[in-house]
Description:
Order of helices and strands: HHHHHHHHH
Structural class: mainly alpha
Number of domains: 2
Radius of gyration: 29 Å
Largest sheet: none
Number of helices: 9
Shape: elongated
Amino acid sequence: MKRVLLIALIPAAAWGETLNQIAQRLGQVDITLKILFLLTVLALLPSILIAVTSFTRIVIIFSLLRHALGTPQTPPNQVVVALSLFLTLFTMYPTFKEIDRVALKPYLSGEISDVEAVERASVPLKEFMLRNTRKEELKLFLDIRGEKPSSPKELSFITLIPAFMVSEVKTAFEFVFVVFLPFILIDFLVASILMSMGMMMIPPMMLSLPFKLILFVVSGGWELLIKSIVESYK
């Protein structure tokens, strides 16, 4: 009788061992998928930064500011990108703080799953993008895709991201237009003075550049520009 029971238990034990092996392999697959997802996010992080944050508007404004001053290579690209990056972190801090509260901390403490963490993190980010997206651009992409969402929650990122980016570029160009005006006036005055003096061989940019730089510094141009950029985000 004991032998019969032992023989009967062998398949059960083998099946239990097989189940344990399957569970371990599934756990390894789950960890592998998480690592793969993390590496994918890290690889796409620069694109994500450009697409869903204030970085696009800020870097365009600072880049075109160099052309308005007449110094297209100064400050260098590294300085412009670094300044734009940290100013982006400054303007996006309330959104990042909310994402950390509703998604990151609960996920790290094991209260929610991966999918739920992503869904929760997308809500504050979508709210920020909607606040800073022009209605004209949003309507344009909704019409192109034929979407008719009944609420902002149903709006897909596929439609929201391009609308947001076009709005950011458009707003940046409006900023730069206002910045260009006083510098164009200085260039015009210097060129007129040189022509009236018959000094046509001297490039106007050579003489107007110091005046534009000192005007921008003395008038607090950096402070006014950065303040305007930060306050432009609702």
